[in-house]
Each structure stands twice: as C-alpha cells, then as structure tokens.
Amino acid sequence: MSNFSKILAPALAAALLSTACGGDRSGDATALGGEVLIDGSSTVFPIAEAIAEEFQIANAGVRVSVGFSGTGGGFKRFCAGETDLSNASRPIKDSEREACAAAGIEFTELPVAWDGLSIIANPANDFVQCLTVDDLRKIWEPNSKVKTWRDVRGEWPDEDVKLYGPGTDSGTFDYFTEVIMGEVGASRPDYQASEDDNILVQGVSGDPYSLGYFGYAYVSENAGRLKLLAVDGGSGCVTPSDATIADGTYTPLSRPLFVYVSHSALARPEVMAYVEFLVQNAQEVVPTTGYHALTPEEYAADLAELTAVAAGSD
Question: For tag attachment on the chain, is the N or C end more exposed, with fewer CB atoms within 10 Å?
Fold first, then answer.
C-alpha cells in the first residue's frame, strides 16, 4: 500500500524527523561492507545515483550499483531475487506482484519524489508552444495517421514528425499510454524508443521537427538543448515546473516516483543503512536532481514503515 494514503501523528513525524536531522543513521562507516544492487526506472535513476554517491562517501566499505533497465525490466530482476531495490516510475502491476509472490519476494513500496512527465520539442521549433491531450492522443495512438506536423494542426508545417520516447519496459511508457490513451501499452510502434533517457535527449535535440516525452529531471539537465511544451489537460495550457507539479495543476502528467525494497535484503545492514539514508536525505537531494521532493511527513511515513519492517511487524 502506498504511503501517500497514510497520515502520521504529528508527534511521530516530529520524532522521526528529529532522528533524521541528527545525521547519518547508517552506523560506523568503517563497520559496513557488502554491496547494494539497484535497477529499474531510468526516470528515478538520477535520484538513486545521487543518493548512492553521498551514501558511499559516508560508507566507504559499501558498493552501491545502480542500473536503469526500465521499470518493467527492473521488476523482472527484482522479482527474480537478483536485486535489493527496484526503482519505478509507476506502481507495481498485479502481474509483477504475483511474480514476486511466487518467488517468495516480500517488499515495501516507498514513494520518494514527484515527477512531471514532460513533452519535449527541439528549440528550433517556433510553432508549437502547447499540446492538448487530444493532440497527444492523435499523435501517439495505435495506427495513428499523423506523419507530419500539419496532420496535427492544419496551420503547422508540412514536415515529418520525428518521434522519440521510452521503450515498452519503461514505467514512463506505461504511465503515458494509460493517461493519454486510456490503456497501458496502447501506442504507435514507429518511433525511436530507448530505456535510456539520455539517448532520447540526444535524438530530440538533434532534430528540428522532433517530439518526445520523458522525465522532468532530464529536461532540467538539458535546458538549452530542449524546448519544454505546455500541456492542456482541459483547464488551459500548463508547463511543468516545481510549482505546477507540486500543486497538481500540471495534469494529467504529474506522477509519484517509487523505490521498492525487498524485505529479505533489508535484513542485511548495508541495505537497511542505504534505504534509511535515502529516506532521511531525500528532502535535500531530490530537488538537486530536478524532481520535486515529498513533504517531511511523507518521508517520515517511509521511515516509519521501514522501522516496522525491520522490527518484524510489517
């Protein structure tokens, strides 16, 4: 169950935050060793990478390995017992939950940040400022007839639309197709797909008539190379920003990001230390990666759930 549905008593939240502010709870850096294995969403990757770097400074004996095979690819490894944590840009699917159960993998879901899935054009594009949900559906739907920009709107150039987006193992692909098409996985196949958002950035930035979508952090990192488009979800054009993602006005493409942690992995002190470090430091680290941090109470809820799991009372 997502921690977004939980409400902590103020006293508990204050107590947990006080503990977090007291510094690194991961123990003596020289006493910890071993490896923490993480895979999954390329959208969540910048957060995991930043946390891993800071954690390893404080815990030099621990090696943290972070991959980005996509949310779906990450869950395949996680439910096979190959990784300790799985980054996800969408909640776990029932089929993935069943695969974990069949393998005896128990886990806890930890929301860690908010993202505004972003619609991107090339900076040379001077005719598109905003796309409606209907425009996006028309462009990306299965069997789409859109070949040129003029096919979207008659006043736009008769130039081929070059499309870039995440592959089918990506949680971003799942989320986009669900909220735009109304069905997970419903998408035209004739676009340049990659699980690596950096490749998508290169594609869009190199083609003047391109269009793509991926996580907000990759836009922030490449502001001069990309043009961020507004989206009209029915109440006017809204551009993703920290403010519009946080207040929910960037709709329907604002979404939570997650980390899933295996209970058996949490029994290892290096994994428990890493996850505690993640939750305790996310408030400061997440904004540096281009995403929007949760509230202190939500991170306190994550920490409370970890404490309960560790105590055997999950």
Answer: N
Report how far residue 5's alpha carbon sits from residue 282's, in angstroms, rounded to the nearest whole number: 19
Q: How many helices (H) and strands (E) does the chain have?
A: 12, 13
Is the CATH code 3.40.190.10 the one for domain 3-114+257-310?
Answer: yes
**Beta strands 210-214; 118-121: pairing state:** antiparallel
Q: Determine contact, residues 261/275, Cβ cutoff 8 Å.
A: yes
Residue with tokens 């003596």: 28
Token pair listed for 19: 């503990």
pLDDT 10s digits, 72-94: 999 999 999 999 999 999 999 99
pTM of the predicted model as reported, rounded to 2 decimal places? 0.81
Q: Are 160 and 112 in contact (CB under 8 A)?
A: no
Contact 192, 198 (CB under 8 A): no
**Eight-class DSSP state of 292:** B
Of 176, 252, 172, the residue nearest 215 (C-alpha):
172
CATH superfamily ID and name for 118-252: Periplasmic binding protein-like II (3.40.190.10)
